[in-house]
UniProtKB/TrEMBL annotation:
Keywords: Coiled coil
Gene Ontology molecular-function annotations: DNA binding; RNA polymerase binding
Full protein name: Transcription elongation factor GreA/GreB C-terminal domain-containing protein
Annotated coiled-coil segments of the chain: 17-84
PROSITE patterns: GREAB_2
Superkingdom per UniProt: Bacteria
Length: 156
């Protein structure tokens, strides 16, 4: 599998950086909230509740640490637009032309594919038809069940 590895751009957009910073702020708020609640629980002799809150503090601190590490290691590209085109790792929302129901799939490598979890292989007919397309594009996709025409609504 490594022979066919594809390097994915590690640069993120300013929007993506702002999202990571918001996740970090939220985790830090939760740490403060859980720590305060733990102190209150200990004062009220609610040992089990205090222990549970202390575990939540540990988890949120760990999460905040990982987000901080990510923010410290990624490169921000001010020119990069968020989710410009469909690539591996992106979630694509589309609607079949003539239908109302939206469908969303995350495009992953074949080893990670799990259609029941909304993860389709980049080798699948649908993914191959969507790759490198943009929001608003109407794409004709040849599937084993026949051709389908879809319009891309959102890329995340």
């Amino acid at each position: 599998m490594l022979r066919f590895v594809e390097i994915i751009d590690e640069k993120i957009s300013l929007d993506d950086k702002a999202k990571l910073e918001a996740y970090l702020a939220e985790a830090q708020e939760k740490v403060a909230e859980y720590e305060a609640a733990s102190v209150t629980a200990k004062e009220n002799n609610a040992k089990e509740e205090a222990a549970l809150l202390d575990e939540k503090v540990k988890l949120e601190k760990w999460y905040a640490e990982k987000v901080e590490e990510l923010l410290a290691t990624v490169e921000v590209d001010a020119e990069k637009k968020t989710s410009e085109v469909v690539t591996i790792g992106k979630t694509v929302t589309f609607v079949e032309v003539g239908e109302d129901d939206e469908e969303s799939y995350t495009i992953v490598g074949s080893a990670e594919a799990d259609p029941f979890e909304g993860k389709i292989s980049n080798d699948s007919p649908i993914a191959r038809g969507l790759l490198e397309r943009k929001v608003g594009d109407v794409v004709k996709i040849a599937t084993p069940g026949g051709d389908m025409e879809v319009k891309i609504i959102k890329i995340q």
